[in-house]
Design a protein that fits this description.
The chain is of the alpha/beta class. The protein has helices spanning 17-33, 46-59, 71-77, 92-97, 116-121, 135-146; strands at 8-12, 38-41, 64-67, 81-91, 105-109, 124-127, 159-161, 170-172. Helix content is 36%, strand content 22%. The structure holds S-adenosylmethionine (SAM).
Length: 174
Amino acid sequence: MSQVVFMITVLRIGHRPERDKRITTHVALVARAFGANRILVDTRDPDMERNFISTCERWGGDVSIKTGVKWREELKTFKGQIVHLTMYGEEVSKGIASLDRAKDLMIVVGAEKVPREVYEMATINVSVGNQPHSEVAALAIFLYKYNECQIPEFSDGKMKIMPDPRGKTVVGNE
Ligand code: SAM
C-alpha cells in the first residue's frame, strides 16, 4: 500500500534582499535539512534560488524554492493548515499536538514586524518560548519537534558525509 506524504511548506515573509539574504538563506537551509519540501520567499531573489538549488544538487533533497511569491495569495489559497511562528503564540508542544497530521502544513516565519493579518489567517500561532529570538532557531525547533526528532537523510546528492568524530569524511554518491 502506498503511503500518502503530506507536504511541508515554509513561507518566509518580509524578506529584504539587501538586509536578510543570509538569514533567509539559513531559513531555506534549515527548512530543507529538517524536513520541509517547499520554500517560498515573498521577495524575488534569483541569487538565493540559484544557491539553494546548487546545495540540493550537491547534497541531495527534493526540495523546491520559489522567490517573489505573493504571501497573501499563498495563505489564502493554501488548502492545509497554517502555522505562524511568533513569540506571542501557543506553546510549541501544545500547538503541534493540536495539528491534524493528515493535512499539508505551511509554516510562516517573519523578518521585521509581521502584519496582523498573518496572525488571523494562520490556523494557529505558535511560539518557541515567549522571548524574541530568531526565525532560524524557531523553525529548526518547530520542525524537529513536528517530525518527532527525526532528521531526514538525502541519498540523491552528488556527495554525502560519513559521520566522523575526528575529522571530515565526504564521499561521492555513485
Ligand atoms: N518583532 C517581530 C514581530 O513582531 O513578529 C519579530 C521579528 S523576529 C526577528 C523574526 C521572526 O522570528 C518572527 O517573525 C518569528 O517568525 C520568529 N521568532 C522570533 N522569536 C520567536 C519565538 N520566540 N517563537 C517563535 N518564533 C519566533
